[in-house]
Amino acid sequence: MQKWVQSLAFKFAGSGIYDSYKQFKRIQCKDDLITFRQSRLVYLLNYAYENVPYYHDHLKDFNVTSSDSIDLANFHDIPLLTKEIIRSNQQGLVSNDYQSRKWCYNTSGGSTGEPVKFIQDNIYSLWRNLANHYYYHDILGIDWYKVRKVNLWGSLNDISKSGAGAKSKPLHRQENMVFLNSFRMSERDMQAYIDVINSYKPDLIHGYAGSLYELSKFAVRNNRPLYSPRFVISSAETLRDDMREGIEEAFGTKVCNFYGSREVSNLAGECAHGLMHTFDFWNYLEILDENNRPVKVGEEGKVVVTNLFNYSMPLIRYEIGDLAIRGPDQCSCGHFLPTLKKVTGRTSDPFILEDGTIIYGSYFNQLFFFKEWVQSFQIVQEEYKTVRINIVPQGEINSYEQSNIEEQIRLVMGRDCAIMWNIVDEIPKTTSGKHLYRISLVWRDLYQKSS
Predict the structure, then answer these.
(1) Contact 264, 307 (CB under 8 A)
(2) 185-240 pLDDT, tens per residue?
(3) Any idea which fold 1-147+203-347 has?
(4) Sequence-separated (6 or more) residues with CB below 8 Å from residue 294
(5) Which residue in 205, 258, 318, 441 has its CB near the most CB atoms, within 10 A?
(6) Is the Cβ–Cβ distance between 59 and 42 less than 8 Å?
(7) CA-CA distance, 436 to 430, in Å (whole number)?
């Protein structure tokens, strides 16, 4: 590995996993990665069996552990861990010795329902940071500590203190970063943000996909040129194709999609060749079909994650609630980390018909792609045959395209589906700063009744 990794070495001294850090530094090819991952899985499973009550029972039941060994051949027989299981076994999933490490609580973002609480410790945090810096240095060729960065991110504290998001936070001198609050972006805010970006001239801009897209549309609409950094990194929300196109047009540079979550942090990052490399030395990703079998290259499946370094609350075969398309094991960029072609969205809030037919939400999102008169939208299934569309318009509404959207909705929801358009000034975001493009009150009611 590169020299930047050595700056983290002293932090692992005395942690009990310094040997795994030295093994990580020796990873140079796919075979090295597989060997490293297998060794960490064995360690994690053994640790979970010995220290975590929930896994002590379940790993033994599925022949993964015996009195003195771990059998990885049966790893894929371990039942998936869901948010419902976590809620029901909160204490049983916490290790007996978690107090021996520095730890803190974190929660899921809540995009797939009620947030779930997790414990994450200092060992987890160190490897999370290592995976993040590995992406920038070894995949993008960027020295995170040296380059100038702008972070278009959300801060509830800034809004509550000032009542607006117009002011950027002071420059973080140590990391050469300027923070711009994206939780609330008025036109005045966006004018100011463009001025900051153009004067600071960052090498790297990172932000929510939706925030980057809104800023890009504003800049193009108002003929405001934007400084072109080496890379724009989009994360936290699904990056649609039209969003990528709009951001790249405004900034004049490539957008790289970064995939992560609050539960297991960094999962995959896009390289300059367009594929997303999964950080399999940190999180082991599986892309599974509806029968929990691995999908083939190019096929879509649900994302299942095993984090290799959270010993305070291990998440083994955790169904995170996302969908992704599996990519080839080898990218044309030459890097040995396996890939995803695309993260396609959340599995939450499908629309449901009275006969039980499920209409997946990505269908509705596509109806609003490349509609110039739509600044922002949200489609809500209020009843089986009632749909409300919240829309922030941009200019005059195109009545022809509006009628076409209604026609496409009725194709899947039924000819008698009532569609209501609700013109709003703003569509509220979740407390974690995400924009929910679709909500089904029907699905949520059924889900709550069955859980």
Answers:
(1) yes
(2) 777 888 999 999 999 999 999 998 888 988 998 999 999 999 999 999 998 778 88
(3) Rossmann fold (3.40.50)
(4) 286, 287, 288, 301, 326
(5) 205
(6) no
(7) 8
